[in-house]
């Protein structure tokens, strides 16, 4: 009787040279597209910043602007640039980057284009903390930043717990956030109705979102916070991108899903609180930045693109708010709210067609 024949173990077929070449070519095209978009957004931001600084109600010629920036000019332009237009522009860029990054983190981690700090009430939570600090305790500066941070993180923690903890369903988490934002908005109105009229007026201007009171002290405070937060965002970006593909695949790639999700959401809340405590919870910048970046990138969402789009939105909106209507300077939040409503409708219609 002959011995049974043992089949040889199966070995996976090596990918063909053509397949490897196609994959490498695709990666190369993706990198080139990413670099082109990055350079394009930087160019748009540079043009928008120049227009905001030099082309306001008081037009500053390019030679004069260069002289002002070099501290080699005396005259009205020196005061206007250094004390009004340049601080507004720089603060708009920094806070726009923070709002854009926060929106990207929310939408990527929760895999929902409607999941943003505005929609989920995080901005309202930060707003409640700041309003209480301004109207009840008469605080300002870093104290308002801390109160805004406590309010934003407190609301996000309450939403996560109410939705069922760290393992909550994403849809339930989003709906719970919407409900939390509505409750927080009611609390803000209750605080304002019992506040001193002058403090309430300051708080209302802050809630609308404005760059009118931009100062170099505010810029320094936001810049220091971003110097700490941006490296953390860069370190977390690969895991956040993996979460965007789904929990199962991300876990298969070695990502600690729940830990990364909570860390990313906490980081987004801190970014919103830092920006909102200085310029107010400017409506819809966080919501618009990531979808616009994805559209420009052909569906690929990158954190730095969302940050650049957020900065462009803030600077352009502030220019429109200040210069579009003669003799009337609007808060930047009015313009972003008007621009964000059509984007929200567009996303809702697009999701409805996709689910039909």
From TrEMBL:
Cellular component annotations (GO), alphabetically ordered: plasma membrane
Single GO biological process annotation from the record: siderophore-iron import into cell
Gene3D superfamilies tied to this protein: ABC transporter involved in vitamin B12 uptake, BtuC
GO molecular function, one term: transmembrane transporter activity
Bilayer topology: Multi-pass membrane protein
Pfam families for the chain: FecCD
Compartments where located: Cell membrane
InterPro entries in UniProt: ABC_BtuC-like, ABC_transptr_permease_BtuC
Protein name: Iron ABC transporter permease
